[in-house]
Amino acid sequence: DTGAVWIYQRDTGDNWTLAQSFTAPTPTAEEGFGYTIDVEAGWAIVGVSPDSPNGQAYLFELGDDGSWRHHDILTGPSGVGFGSAVAISPYWAVVGMPSDDSLASNSGGAIPFQREDDRWVQRGLITASDPTPNLRMGTSVAVSGDLAIIGSPGPSGTDGGATAGRLTFFPLPSDRLPEAVGEIRDLIGHSAALST
């Protein structure tokens, strides 16, 4: 399953019509292009399946003629679910990698990218302050302006229990803000949205 994306546009009569469809610039079997997508201010970021053999997310820019054009590929580690959660604002893109094992088994994380002129540049790595196995940080991501929220639906550490989860707020590119931590079986962090 290489995947595809369909872009719909609302007209003045509140009707939605297909404006454009596209695939990855170089479609790859089992990639699941379009597994996640976010659109904001003339930018679209398209993620891939957590089972994708490649860790990447695709950036598309809306042209003056109203068509979407491939702009860049954000790359990350393979085999960690990089690209299975994506978010974009005019100057920041955040890509989740919930299966990252660098701090603990499946503790996860996310990578922020900042737009500088026509390039998107990686700005560090977002990880849990107290990584625990199966936390799966980066299962969901959202960004608005210079603020990101990263969802972690797994065990929340000290007293949260098996599936309490947490949401962590990050002012980009700075340190974390206070977290919202759930109770047992709350699954906080499975999905996230943000508006500032």
Topology (elements, then pairings):
Blueprint: E1 5-10, E2 16-22, E3 37-40, E4 43-46, E5 56-62, E6 68-75, E7 86-88, E8 92-96, E9 110-116, E10 119-122, E11 140-144, E12 147-152, E13 166-171, E14 179-181
Antiparallel strand pairs: 1-2, 3-4, 4-5, 5-6, 7-8, 8-9, 9-10, 11-12, 12-13, 13-14
What is the strand tally? 14
Q: What is the overall number of helices? A: 0
H/E series, N to C?
Answer: EEEEEEEEEEEEEE
Distance between the termini: 36 Å
Structural class: mainly beta
Spatial ordering of strands, largest sheet: 3-4-5-6
**Low-pLDDT residue intervals, each spanning 5 or more residues:** 176-187
* Biggest sheet statistics: 4 strands, antiparallel
Q: Please state the overall shape, judged from the principal axes of the Cα atoms.
A: globular
Mean pLDDT: 85
How much strand content do the residues show? 35-45%
Rg calculated over all Cα atoms: 17 Å
> What's the helical proportion of residues?
under 10%
